[in-house]
Structure formats: structure tokens, C-alpha cells
Amino acid sequence: MTNYPLTAVRTYALYAQGLHNANRTDQQPTLDSIQQIVEKLGCVQIDTLNLVQRSHYLVLWSRLGAYNPADFDALVYSPEQRLLFEGWQRIASIIPLKDYRYQLPRMQHMRQDHSAGFLSWFDQEGHALLDLVLERIRNEGALRAADFEYHGPRRGSWWDWKPAKTALEYLFAFGDLMIANRFNFQRVYDLTERVLPAWVIPRRQSLKRRTAIGLKKRPLPSGIAKQNR
């Protein structure tokens, strides 16, 4: 086995993350180059922190330089240009649509193996609310949590989710809904069949299988692979 110097391992790690080149200023990043960066990374974490700009926009800036964040949004939320989507990759993330099928096992697990918290909520108020929320979206189109009135007390000091918001998040986790847009960073939910492009084939495949395929496409030198573990 070849052992690589630490500097080589560091360089490869930067290359794999797209951080090996300085921010480019000679040309404006395009929709294609934005999509390619997300595909290379596998996903971009969504974060609510907003000191300079929301962190998922900064991830692209650190690799592409100055670009128009509206182009990134278009790839996620524009029906005509959608090639990315909001999903879950250990954390809320923006993911290439070609990897949508790897979300299906998690969705099935969430739908079938309910947590104690879900069962308690479902027994108290969720049974009818899930159907009600889904029916409103089916009839009225995409909706935010703010479109559902709630006049009850605060439900917590950290996650103050009203009942409809909880239902929306469960329906999103189950795969019944997708995030069609964002308005002032608020999620706009719609039926999956109205958001998911027709060219996406939702054929289930495990994330383990995806990882194996990805490693075959981008093999590491054996020494670096072991040194990176």
C-alpha cells in the first residue's frame, strides 16, 4: 500500500469538496456550473442562520465566487428549471433530483415505523389533521404553515410549531408533500406529484447502494482512502 503525505491527503480533501481553486472572477457562474457543484458535493445543507447570507448560499460562493443566488433558487423551486430539491441527507439539504430515489427508503421508514412522539401526537390531534391539511393543499394548491390559522397557546419555547405545521412536516417526511417554494424563507408545501418533474423515476434504491456507486465513479487511491478513514 502506498502511503501519501499529509499534504497530499489535505489537497485531495479540498479537491473533493471543490475548494481547490480560488473564487473565479473571470466569468459569471451559470445554472449549469451551480448544478455541477451541488452534484459534486452530493448535497448542500440548508441552515436558518443568516449573518451575512444563509449558509447554503455561502457554500456555493466559496466555490464559484460571485453568483446570483436567484439562479440557485431557480434550480430548486422553478418548475421550468428544477434540477434540485429540498430533502434530507442526515440534515435538511438541497439535493440533486437525480438522487431523489435514495430518499424513498427513509420516507417508507418514516411512514411505517412511527416514533413515540408521532404516535402520541397522532392520537391526540393528528389523525384528522393530516387528512385535513392534505385535502386543503390538494384543493387550494401550495400552502405555507402561515396559511393555517391557529389561536391556541404557545407549544414550546424552542420549536413553537402549531398543529398544522407539525402535520405539514410529517407529510413532507412521508413523501406526500415536497417543498415547492420558499417565501421569506418559509416553506411552501405542495403535493409531490405536482412538484416532482415527470422525468424523475421514483424507483427505490438504498443510500448504501448510492454510496457504493459513487465510490466506483470516483475511486480514491487506496492509501488515501485508508488514511481518510
Strand order of the largest sheet: 1-3-2
User: Kindly state the mean pLDDT as a whole number?
Assistant: 82
User: Class by helix and strand content?
Assistant: alpha+beta
Taking all Cα atoms into account, the compactness measure Rg is 20 Å
The total strand number stands at 6
Q: Give the N-terminus to C-terminus distance in angstroms.
A: 15 Å
Helical stretch tally? 10
Quickly count the domains. Answer: 2
Major sheet size, sense and barrel closure: 3 strands, antiparallel
Estimate the global geometry from the Cα principal axes: globular
Report the sheet-strand fraction.
Answer: 5-15%
Oligomerization state of this entry?
single chain
| Helix and strand element order | HHEHHEEHHEHEEHHH
Low-confidence parts, pLDDT < 50 over ≥5 residues?
221-225
Helix content: 40-55%
Key terms for this structure?
alpha+beta; Arc Repressor Mutant, subunit A; 2 domains; globular; 10 helices; 12% strand; 229 residues; 6 strands
What does this entry look like structurally?
Helix 6 (116-140) packs across helix 7. The chain folds into two domains: 6-99 and 205-227, no CATH class; 114-195, Orthogonal Bundle (Arc Repressor Mutant, subunit A), CATH 1.10.10. The radius of gyration is 20 Å and the shape is globular. Strand 5 and strand 6 (186-191) form a beta hairpin. It has ten helices and six strands, in the order H-H-E-H-H-E-E-H-H-E-H-E-E-H-H-H. By secondary structure, the protein is α+β, with helices and mostly antiparallel strands. The chain has helices spanning 6-16, 31-41, 55-64, 69-77, 104-112, 116-140, 163-174, 192-195, 207-217, 222-227, and strands at 44-45, 84-88, 92-96, 143-144, 177-183, 186-191.
